Amino acid sequence: MASRRYLLLFLAVLWSLALGFLYNFHRLKKEWERFFHLTLEEEKRRLYSALKATLTAGGDPVETLSEYLEGSRLLKGAALILSGRTIIVPGSDIPPKSLVYTLELEPFRFQLYFSGETFYEIKRHLYLELALWFLLNLAGLGVTLWLLRGYYESRLNLAREKAETERLRSVSLAIASVLHEVKNTLNNLNFAVFRLKKKCGFEEIRILEEEIRRLTLYLEEVSDLRKPLTLKLTRLRIEELTGEVLEEFSERIKDLGVETEVNLAPAELPVDAERMRVVLRNLIRNALEALAEVPPPRKLKLSGELEGPFYRLEVADSAGLLPGDAQLFQPYKSRKPGGFGLGLFNVKRILEAHGGEIEAGVHSGFTVFTLKLPLGKPSEK
Questions:
Q1: Which member of 49, 84, 286, 310 has the lowest number of beta carbons within 10 Å of its beta carbon?
Q2: What is the pLDDT of residue 311?
C-alpha cells in the first residue's frame, strides 16, 4: 500500500511539472505574438504618419510608399486602391506568407503586406521545442516506469521468496517431526521382528524385515534432501523389473478396471534396483490415483525402447490430469490434499543420480511421464 502511495505521489508531481511547463509555454507563445503585433502596430503608425504628411503637403503617396519599402524590414509590399482601381507600389515583393493590413486615408485606401516569415518561423520553432520536450519527457517517463517496474518486481520476488522460505521451513519442521516419530516406530518394529525371527524363521518375517530396512533407508534419505544419493549399481533387465513392480499393483488395477498395455523392448541397464523400484512405484501409483478420479474406460500404458545411448521408458495414463505449472518436480508442491510433494521430486533425484532425466506432458489425452536412462554407467554418459 505504501509503495502504491509513493507511485501515485510521483505521478502527481510529474503531472504538475508537465502542466507547469505547458502553462509557461502558452505564456511565452502569447508574449511573442503580442510583441510581434505591437511591432507591426508601431510600423503602421509610422507609415500612417508619413502618408498623412505626404497627402497634406499634396505629394505622391505611391512615391512615399516606394521609398518606405526600401528602408523597411517588415513592409514588403503595398497597393493603393482608388475608385476601384488597384495600383501596386513599385518595389513591392509580396511574400507567400504575409500579414495584410488596411489603412484608410481619404480618398485613398492602402493595402499593406508585412513579412510573416519571422513570425511563423519563431512559432514553428516554439512548437518544435514543445514536441521535443514532449518526446524527451515521454522517453524519460518510460525509462522511469521501466525502472520502477523492475524495482517493484524485484521487491515482489523477494517477498515471494521470503514467504516460500518460511513455508518450506514450516513444512520441513513438520516433516522432520513426522520422520522422527516414524523412525522410532520402525525401530520398535525392527526390534520386534528381530525377537520374532529368533523363535521362528517364516518367509513372511524375512519379507517384513526387508521392507522395514528399505523404509528406514528411505526415511534417512528424505530427512535431508540436500544429501547426494549413493547408488548400488547392478545390471538388470529393465523389462523384468518393470513387470515385477507392475505386478505389485495387480489387485488395484483389477479393482479400478484398468486396461494395461505393456510394450517394453528388452534391455539390460546399470541401475540401483531398489531406487528404480521407488521410481516405478511412484509413477504407477500416481497413474492409478489419477485414473481413480475419472470414469471408465481407464488405460495404463508402459512402453520402452532404445533411443541412442539411452533407454526411453514411458508411463502413460488416460486420465490426462497434469498440473499446468513448472513446479511438478519441486519439493513440497503437491496437488494431493495433505501431500508433501516429495514423490516426483524423489523420482527426479534418483533418475538424475543415474545420469538420466524425466519429463512430463499430456499427449492425445494421456498423461505421459518419459524417463531416459543411460545404457552405460552414469559417468559414461
A1: 84
A2: 93
- Give ∠ CA 286-291-292 in degrees, rounded to 5: 100
**Where are the strands (E) in the chain, listed by range?**
75-82, 85-88, 98-105, 108-115, 234-237, 258-264, 268-271, 298-307, 310-317, 357-363, 366-374
pLDDT for position 381: 40
Residues 346 and 226: beta-carbon distance below 8 Å: no
300 sits in the region (left: phi over 0; alpha: psi -120 to 50; else beta) called: beta
**DSSP characters for 85-101?**
EEEEPTT----SSEEEE
Q: CATH 3.30.450 occupies which residues in the chain?
A: 2-115
Q: What architecture (CATH level 2) is domain 2-115?
A: 2-Layer Sandwich (3.30)
Q: Which residue carries 543411460 as its cell?
A: 374
Give 297's contacts (C-beta < 8 A, 6+ positions apart): 257, 259, 318
C-beta of residue 281 within 8 angstroms of C-beta of residue 248: yes
Identify the bridge partners of residue 262 per DSSP, sorted by sequence position. 302
DSSP letter for each residue of 164-216: HHHHHHHHHHHHHHHHHHHHHHHHHHHHHHHHHHHH---HHHHHHHHHHHHHH
CA angle 273, 274, 280 (to 5 degrees): 85
Return d(Cα 243, Cα 240) in angstroms, integer.
5
Half-sphere exposure of residue 119: CA atoms within 13 angstroms, side-chain side: 18
User: At a CB cut-off of 8 Å and minimum separation 6, what does 109 contact?
Assistant: 80, 81, 82, 102, 103
Class of domain 234-380: alpha beta
* Predicted structure pTM score: 0.48
> Read out DSSP for 342-355?
-HHHHHHHHHHHTT
Task: Classify burial at 251, counting beta carbons within 10 Å of its beta carbon; exposed 0-12, middle 13-18, buried 19 or more.
Answer: exposed
For residue 341, the 8-state DSSP code is S
Q: Which of 36, 38, 32 is nearest to 127 (CA)?
A: 32
Low-confidence ranges of the chain (pLDDT < 50): 326, 337-340, 380-381
Integer Cα distance of 48 and 55 in angstroms: 11
Whether 241 contacts 273, CB under 8 Å = yes
CATH 3.30.565.10 intervals, the chain: 234-380
Angle at 273 between CA 268 and CA 279, to 5 degrees: 100
